[in-house]
Automatic annotation (TrEMBL):
It is an enzyme of class 1 (oxidoreductase). PANTHER family: 2-AMINOMUCONIC SEMIALDEHYDE DEHYDROGENASE. Residues 25-493 form the Aldehyde dehydrogenase domain. Keywords: NAD, Oxidoreductase. One of its GO terms (molecular function) is aminomuconate-semialdehyde dehydrogenase activity. PROSITE patterns: ALDEHYDE_DEHYDR_CYS, ALDEHYDE_DEHYDR_GLU. It comes from Rhodobium gokarnense. Belongs to the aldehyde dehydrogenase family. This is Aminomuconate-semialdehyde/2-hydroxymuconate-6-semialdehyde dehydrogenase.
């Protein structure tokens, strides 16, 4: 069995193969594409392109595993194996860290504190859910007095198609694979073409801990007319879970309609942060710095619209400017680095187009707006952290998801006004509220059209809670018991006594 070499950033010719039925295999079409490091634009290696036949082989392997040892496995054994997956990710922490950094260019400090630990946590939390969550039962009185017993049974949905994005590759892929496997399903994963490494590496972990072959499969390639679409259109896929852009979600939903397959979508956002004058100012600044600039602004839950109550507007803008100008852009390995590059040349061009649009619309460019000089890293896809004020509420800068290290700040004068502003978006993913008034915190949160609202915090994650967006930000909720609704079929058994 060929094994995927441990993916190290310094390995120049890493060949990323598909992982099908427990084996790393080349694509049947013999085609590959380059894997480029966003830090410096250098080639990391090549990625195999899946053909329809490769995707068909992966779906067949997943189906066979459902009918084999995995489908017959007692829950307790499945739970033990998922904990073993988490422990093996922890044991190979440095390999996952090197792979994630190579693929994304993100600071090592960020990947080490968020991306990789969550890879392990996402298996443990759902192993615990399936071990401990009861199902319902009802006793029915019947006319003959004997009664009837009703009880619910949860069964795996089957073969789950998992399509994941490039911003938090391991975290977001395992956020889907964890519950899918915990509920007894099998998966075929199509990671982003930008960031295949940690998804590939997880195949080694699955083999090492003894997850039966065919339970976890990985196919690589792009989306349209490629691996992504071949997977969503495959009739052997029972349900599709997807994280990515809203417009991609629309395309996948069309594919899922054929065969009436269920979907779970985590899509785009244009999230507001609302800062009241009575907030803990330093905490609001620290939290907004993270929600705007973390992961180079490439977080779906991130803030791109900041609304600040007028009495503290000038002070807030000046302080955020000073902090943004102190952000250190640099090499992933430098412990001082707190801002990495954008994921690709294409994405940098998209973000830069918004920078140029803002300037053309007459925005006040509080800081940034350009491409920084990065010396030996000039080959990477860098942009300056950027803050604007002064744009109209209907500007594309204020209404469209940019997905970069930037935000627009606007003053407001009343709670009613800021709720209207915050909710004036086709998205409904996340929001942050900064205030010292507890009643106001609860009142404003309840009126925000978002799936996830943080008060005096951001990206504080309890994995048992419901996670997902409303409106154009998604379909369904995952997290804790909520994931069971998507990853299992619920039956009711009624026994006449
Ligand atoms: N709501 C969330 O939790 C969440 C989390 C992370 C990212 N996102 C969103 O994802 C976007 C950034 O990620 P991205 O650029 O990778 O998104 P994307 O939609 O371009 O791609 C996501 C994945 O979908 C695949 N894909 C693309 N077109 C497809 C098609 N027609 N059929 C099947 N698969 C297809 C891609 O290959 C990739 O694997 C942003 O909009 C961000 O808001 C949302
Ligand atoms: N789904 C999650 C994060 C999403 C981040 C978006 O970029 C999570 O923390 O579980």
């Amino acid at each position: 069995m060929s094994t995927q070499t441990a993916l190290k950033a310094e390995t120049a010719a890493v060949e990323i193969k598909h992982f099908i039925n427990g084996e790393f295999v080349a694509g049947s079409g013999g085609e590959t594409f380059d894997n480029i490091c966003p830090l410096n634009g250098e080639k990391l290696g090549v990625i195999h392109k899946a053909t329809k036949d490769d995707v068909d082989a992966a779906v067949s392997a997943a189906r066979a595993a459902l009918k084999g040892e995995w489908g017959r496995m007692p829950t307790a054994e499945r739970v033990r194996l998922l904990y073993a997956v988490a422990d093996e990710i922890d044991r190979r922490f440095d390999d996952f860290l090197a792979a994630e950094i190579a693929d994304t260019g993100k600071p090592k400090s960020l990947a080490a504190h968020i991306d990789i630990p969550r890879g392990a946590a996402n298996f443990k939390v759902f192993a615990d859910v399936v071990k401990n969550v009861p199902t319902e039962s009802f006793f029915l009185e019947t006319p003959d007095g004997a009664g009837a017993m009703n009880y619910a049974v949860r069964k795996p949905k089957g073969v789950i198609g998992v399509i994941s994005p490039w911003n938090l590759p391991l975290l977001l892929m395992t956020w889907k694979v964890g519950p899918a496997l915990a509920c007894g399903n099998t998966v075929v994963v199509k990671p982003s073409e930008e960031t295949p490494m940690t998804t590939a590496l997880l195949g080694e972990v699955m083999n090492a801990v003894g997850i039966p072959k065919g339970v976890y499969n990985v196919v690589h390639g792009h989306g349209p007319d490629a691996a992504g679409e071949f997977l969503t259109q495959h009739p052997g896929v029972d349900a599709i879970t997807f994280t990515g852009e809203t417009r991609t979600g629309e395309a996948i939903m069309k594919a899922a309609a054929r065969g009436v397959r269920d979907v779970s979508f985590e899509l785009g956002g244009k999230n507001p942060a609302i800062v009241f004058a009575d907030c803990d100012f330093d905490a609001a600044i620290e939290g907004t710095m993270r929600s705007v600039f973390a992961n180079c602004g490439q977080v779906c839950l991130g803030t791109e619209r900041v609304y600040v109550e007028r009495p503290i507007f000038d002070k807030f803008v000046a302080t955020l400017k000073e902090k943004a100008e102190n952000l250190k852009l640099g090499h992933s390995d430098d412990p001082e680095t707190n801002l990495g590059p954008l994921i690709s040349e294409e994405h940098r061009a998209k973000v830069k187009s918004y920078y140029d649009k803002a300037a053309a619309e007459g925005a006040t460019v509080v800081t940034g707006g350009g491409i920084p000089e990065m010396g030996d890293l000039n080959g990477g896809w860098w942009v300056e952290p950027t803050i604007w004020t002064g744009l109209p509420d209907d500007s594309a800068i204020v209404t469209e998801e940019i997905f970069g290290p930037c935000c627009h700040i606007r003053p407001f004068d009343s709670e009613d006004e800021v709720l209207k502003l915050a909710n004036d978006t086709p998205y409904g993913l996340a929001a942050a509220v900064w205030t010292g008034d507890v009643s106001r915190a609860h009142r404003v949160s309840r009126h925000l059209e978002a799936g996830i609202i943080w008060v005096n915090s951001w990206f504080l994650r309890d994995l048992r809670t419901a996670f997902g967006g409303s409106k154009m930000s998604g379909i369904g909720r995952e997290g804790g018991v909520h994931s069971l609704e998507f990853y299992t079929e619920l039956s009711n058994v009624c026994v006449k006594l």
